[in-house]
Amino acid sequence: MPKLFIQAKPVLEKIEQAGFQAYFVGGAVRDYLLNKQISDVDIATSATPAEIKEIFPKTVDVGIEHGTILVIFKGIPYEVTTFRTESEYADFRRPSRVEFIRSLEDDLKRRDFTMNAIAMNRNFTIIDPYLGKAAIENQQIRTVGRPEDRFQEDALRMMRAVRFVSQLSFSIERTTYQGLSDHGFLLEKIAVERILAEFNKLLAGENKTEAFKILRETGIYQFLPGFKGCGHVLAEYEGLDTAGLKELIENWTLLVHLLKPADIDSFLRSWKMSAKQMKQIKKYVFYLNRRLQGSLNKIDMFHAGLETTLSLEKIFCVLTECPEEAHDTDQIESVYQSLPIHALKELAVDGNDLIQWSARKAGPWIKEVLLFALEGVLEQKAANEKEAIREWLCRCNLI
Ligand code: ATP
Ligand code: MG
Q1: Is 390 annotated as a binding residue?
Q2: pLDDT tens digits for range 343-357
Q3: Strands (E), the chain
Q4: ipTM exceeding the 0.95 mark
Q5: Given this structure, which CATH class describes domain 139-239?
Q6: How far apart are the C-alpha atoms of 130 and 50, rounded to whole Å?
Q7: Annotated binding residue 163
Q8: What is the CATH number of domain 345-395?
Q9: Which residues line ligand 1 (CB under 6 A)?
Q10: Fold assignment, 241-339
């Protein structure tokens, strides 16, 4: 039994001693049955949040309106969620009201897929009213209940189905698959942030090629921001060997490169990316274009940084279908290490030096001349010493 469950067992026991039911549920139980590494265990209980707070001295309110309390037990946080039904799905997204209930079976019934609707008690006995274990054995993703009902209640479940294909290499059961084909349009009602979270998990999965194929064949992709009419781009992505692209940034860079949106900013904004993510992706896309025009020179490498340069090389190999062993990371690393400096602050001169030498007033010219000096140093036209740089700038009539 994984250590995380053993550590968490006393939490279940304490809740039961107080007269309530408590079970392990969700992804941890599924992953345990799959012999996969478990990252965190979730607990479902018949106790209400207020009752849980009375049992445990240390708790944090994280989603009390949905019935979730974080219980800190022996320094480890556990999400403890009251059994609930989700009634009145007003607009194809999250329930407008949750109702706390006392029945485990009804709580499992509101969960998305049968493989995620399995509970395990403190003796590690499995409670599986919706045949989730069989679905896991058959490697099948199927909704609890009728797919059309469940996708209409919460359309995000369609994206979850596809991201589980990518993560688990399962297939989607026939009627569930049909449900995806019929209800993709409901994704337009879902908050983009929730779609992005699932899409990012999809991109990080082992089987993303198959997941892309399902997005395309069910037509769901049409309802992802910026993908309308871009089925051919998905097909192109599927045709590439992207298995080596493990990082999110690498996958997003490749996608943006293939999609070629008219305006990258508005594309990324439509995905509700943070300013930081947008900046990073734009930087990668910029240097990928340079890489596609020829090897990155030392100045590019300096500005891109080693990590980015290596990632771009991987993307370049994916796009040009060269075998992974053909790209020489050692060579790139040694060129990078041989750069005389690796950050602008290591440059031996600064703006004050330039003002002194030229007797000119401060202005935008300083940045330009500093960049010129930087390039001179990187290309070893001048040593990274004050005097050498001054001479070089003089010779170029810049000061
Ligand atoms: P992961 O390993 O990626 O965390 P997970 O299955 O634990 O996968 P979570 O998003 O953490 O996924 O959700 C925990 C559980 O809550 C799921 O296993 C499922 O039972 C239920 N669940 C999550 N999202 C939904 C949803 N949109 N509709 C119904 N049930 C859901
Ligand atoms: Mg989880």
Answers
A1: no
A2: 999 999 999 999 999
A3: 22-25, 42-45, 59-63, 68-73, 76-82, 84-87, 97-100, 119-120, 126-127, 140-141, 171-172
A4: yes
A5: mainly alpha
A6: 29
A7: yes
A8: 1.10.246.80
A9: 26-27, 42, 111-112, 116-117, 154, 156-157
A10: Methane Monooxygenase Hydroxylase; Chain G, domain 1 (1.20.58)
